[in-house]
Amino acid sequence: MMRDDLAVIYDWVPTGARVLDLGCGDGTLLDALARDKNVTGYGLEIDPGGITACLARGVNVIEQNLDDGLANFDDSAYDLVVMTQALQALRRPDLMLDEMLRVAEEGIITFPNFAYWRHRVHLGLRGYMPVSKSLPYAWYDTPNIHLSTFNDFEHLCREKNLKIIDRAVGIGGNKGNRLSRHWPNLFGEIAIFRVARRRY
Amino acid sequence: MTVPHDSVGLITPQTLHFDEPLPLACGRTLPAYDLVFETYGTLNAERSNAVLICHALSGHHHAAGYHSPDDRKPGWWDAHIGPGKSIDTNRFFVVSLNNLGGCHGSTGPTSINPASGRPWGPDFPMVTVDDWVHSQARLADRLGIARFAAVVGGSLGGMQALQWALSYPDRIANAVVIAATPKLSAQNIAFNEVARQAIRSDPDFHDGYYLDHGSVPRRGLRLARMVGHITYLSEGAMGSKFGRDMRGSQNFNFGYDVEFQVESYLRYQGDTFSNLFDAHTYLLMTKALDYFDPAADHNDDLALAMAPARCPFLVVSFSTDWRFPPSRSRELVNALIRADKAVSYANIDSTHGHDAFLMLDLRYQEVFAAFMSRVARDLGLGEQS
Lengths: 200, 385
Prior knowledge:
Distance between the termini of chain A: 40 Å
Helix content of chain A: 25-40%
Number of strands of chain A: 7
Shape of chain B: globular
Shape of chain A: globular
Radius of gyration of chain B: 21 Å
Order of helices and strands of chain B: EEEEEEEEEEHEHEHHHHHHEHEH
Distance between the termini of chain B: 25 Å
Helix content of chain B: 25-40%
Structural class of chain B: alpha/beta
Strand order of the largest sheet of chain A: 3-2-1-4-5-7-6
Strand order of the largest sheet of chain B: 1-4-8-5-11-12-13-14
Number of strands of chain B: 14
Largest interface: A-B, 20 and 21 residues
Oligomer: heterodimer
Largest sheet of chain B: 8 strands, mixed
Largest sheet of chain A: 7 strands, mixed
């Protein structure tokens, strides 16, 4: 079984696409896409366990820190860049968004929605930093240094003049319900965005 | 001694003679030659499970196992070749040879030149990585191996693995390039030149005809090895191994005898090496290193040079390697990415410098084994024992 956000992305990726997966983890997504949809490309990862798992699967994996940028990838070399659950851990998420849409026409980004109602309850009512399935760390050892919300990300896309082609939410084991579709900022635990450069 | 259970055991080297002349990059032709090699494991019926090991500057064919029960040490890459190891001899048939120009049994400067009846010495033609790969392909022909499951090497050996992917794309299913570089830097060449000058300026060198004079440029070879050895280790590794420790008395004796442990170590390395290795072979191998540059024929565009390759690559570097640092491996990886080739890259955290590629390290092992087990799986060679 694929993680919620990966299952959504899997459906969105067109057959035969050239894909770059930033923070590809154990390579589950690229492996499934290569097998079923004839997708080619590379995964970038820094976690040793993830890299070994990719190698065992036959997923092309490059040990590379996303904070170092994507200078080794050419402009528009890919159809699609995917980055799942890494945005919030980057030093400059905004610059990464620029980089993603330099190397590909389209990007798919997923991140934990900080405005999810359970997170609000944690912070707003109980007065503690949220800890949840999507934000499992304590405040002092979390790699998540740039938490944001569904609305924040939409705002950034508008500022960067990016087109939001599609968005979805992941919530507790399924791809979202009516509530989360109507009020994603409140009921979506995982934000999933598909964005593209605007054509003029 | 008893042979460890994960060893390939007692090994007897084999030699094959080749009569077909081998044209070389330098323009000369080697009329005939011998190649000495070892094999570990069993070639399967489909002949699809062969792995070629390419050796580095001072390496040879004896990569794994023991030649005699009295051997103190196994082959130079025993850590990674054997039953259940990264290159699992229960699944793979491993071929490891001594390259042309070597001094461990393959035709080289110490062999007899049939034209003169005397050792080749300085008249032995210069050989390149390209030449080695062609000679290795002929060895494969004789062993009935149409295509290697993988060609694997560290340092200069990694360059051969890379060259295989470019020269014989149909005959290599996977390439493993460890602690290598797509070309030497000015600094690399500079170190090699110091080593060469040390050898060539030794009075015992006799313009290269030292064998005819019954001498060996031992002092030069010793210096060459000492300088080389410094580049194989990291500053940190040397520091933690020797620091400023003194041998014997802790007081300075204000002379030039060995005082610091590191001096003693380097002298020992130099002495051992100079008794075992041929000076011409060392000269030749350093030139082969210097000349390696697959991008040179492609406007220095490495990505363009990678075009012929069709096999997946595994590129591995080590964090403290300053001889061929991680940035050089990334150069290769990025060229392969630009050329749209299947490539994976891991940079192993290690304190051991360039020599880390010879050693055992948990993560190095995991990466290497994961890649090789995928190679075995794709070829239907069964699971790791």
